[in-house]
## 1
Amino acid sequence: MPTSRRTQNEPFRKVRKAGRNLSEAMSKTQAGREKTTLSLKAHPDTDADLIAWWQAIPAGARSDALRTLIRSGLREGYPTPVERVLADTSWLREALMELPAYLEGLLSRVPRAEPVPVAVNPETPDEAQTRLDQASAARRRAHVKQRGW
């Protein structure tokens, strides 16, 4: 069962509400202007500060606040990629020029290690004890000859 007031035989008529016509809602200078929509997606995990700022602005003032913010950023100037590379290169050059002095200062604070003296073991066998006697030397030569060395 239909809930509207019109009957099935009555044709549908579009009712014009006051203030809905573009020319009535805007002044004559705004009626012919084109608009461009700027959109931004904000994620609650990474952009919570932006979302809080946006929600703190009254609903009718958000567009003006955003325009003011963008225009102030344009006045300050946003560096181009080439300008950023030049700035980064300049910073790297300065850092590399300071590096030798930094390392020299760092190494001057590192304590120097003195050589540790090593004591010679006085109980090492002397040369006379390590030599083979004549019989052992002859036996070893004969053994080497048999093996075909």
## 2
Amino acid sequence: MWNGLRALLCASMAAIGLAGCGTGTRDAAVPPAAHDEAALAKAAAMAAELGVDGWGPAHASAPFGLTTGRGAEYLFNKAAFWRGERRQLEVRDGADDIALALATDAWTRTGHVDVEAVSASGPVKLRSGLVLVAGPATREARPLPLVAALKPVQQLDRTLCEIAGRYGNALRDWVMQEMEYPRTAANTACAS
């Protein structure tokens, strides 16, 4: 998943002409230094919007390799189908797509939770302009929190802490492993 976030950032960098993530192209009419300044400013703005301190195409995948212990844990989580629960996430017009996607992705990667988007008003228009068809809330599914004031990465860190609180640190660490999301003080030092 973190690779997905990296891919999104790299695609955005390529779209604005900043090379470094692959085959970005440059406009020959714009001097490279001026082009890079504008691209760097846009990349910095995107990083700030996501709630991260910096940006860049580098990602260390080595710490996320599959070991025998991680493989056994994966098989156990997948085999424990009886532990599933339905949860619902209330969405409103203007909800942040990325925060919604990161929170939903993290919860579903636990192997314990199926997440459904719900809204009293039916379809909602997300911040990006996409329309999400949300169903009505039900009493059978417990709500999941999504804090509108948080930036996407802050919401992910909060979600990881909620996962640790509900299922333990080992499952939170597994979710982070699958997402290739690095450990930080924000997502591992959760308030009780």
## 3
Amino acid sequence: MRSCRAAEQRGISRFGEVSDPGLGLEPARKYRRGNYRAEPRIRKANPALHSHLGVNFLPAHNDNILFFEKANAARDNVVLVAINLDPFNEQGADVELPWQTLNNWGVQEWDALAVEDQMTGERFEWRGKRQHIRLDPNTRPFAIWRIAPTWELPRAQTTL
């Protein structure tokens, strides 16, 4: 109990929330708070997120980056999540894509992999087993991507 009071006097609540905006955590807190609205949309669009099953932790060559795959049983919906565990500094890592999933899809090392950023809607392609990512706790403390073979992910609608 004594440690809780001491922490509260330093501006930290019992739940670890910092009440002093001078510590530089306010931008990250606003970022997280604003994205709670995106969570139901992302969950609804991805059957892999409808269950607690299908989690596979993947290599990220930086201890400050947590990287994992979430897939449904049929493995036709695969979501990759990267989280920066350092609340103060931008972190980068070489992450390894789930080679087992890629092999099941028949995707070779040189084939393109369709990627859709679930937070921004941006679509792009990755090639190769390793990708380099950067996460800044003030602007983008985490990333959620849906991956699929390029022939599976629906193309973005274009207006002429």
## 4
Amino acid sequence: MSLSADEQRILTSVTHDLYNALSSPREQLETAVAHLESAPFALSYANASATLLSMIKLFHPGDRILIDHNAPPLLETWNSAGLKVERLDLQHCDLAAPHYQGVKLIWTTQCNPELLAMAHMQGAWILLDSTLAPGRGMCGADLVYYGHAGCLSGQGDLTLSMLITASETLFEACSVGRIPPGLVESLLTLRALDTLGLRLERAKETADLL
């Protein structure tokens, strides 16, 4: 049975409205997180693997990646793509040394002026892993990363992952072919942002007591 022109218009309108309703929570989440980190761009992904898969397009085989000693083990899977991932204590090494020339990305959980200066002197991007400390801003980094939404949402079972950046070039490169999070994950994380400040404050008070 074929649809009349009016029925086809109604169906098209309903489909368009449904698509917008489903995509809106993700876009709202990205806007809110970009604002949280004082950056213009944010991208959400289904999980950390999807984020790393999207990021790998930034590199070429043979590129060197320096990761902090407490960086997630998942990063070492980049070695199988021809990258050279090296784990070390970034806070106590001299990145200005000739040994570290040719580094493309530095992955750290703490940004300090010396680390930033040495990274940019080497022409490397610096990524700040804020999975456990959302909301501290870019701190001079090129990218901010959330490996999961545990702290962001207060729910440990949400695998949603995010990248935040002030660079339009990095934003566009990491947007291509990305695997976005589901509607439920986006909605739950977005809803939880209202209590993020309070949860972080309480967590700090508890840590101080311990």
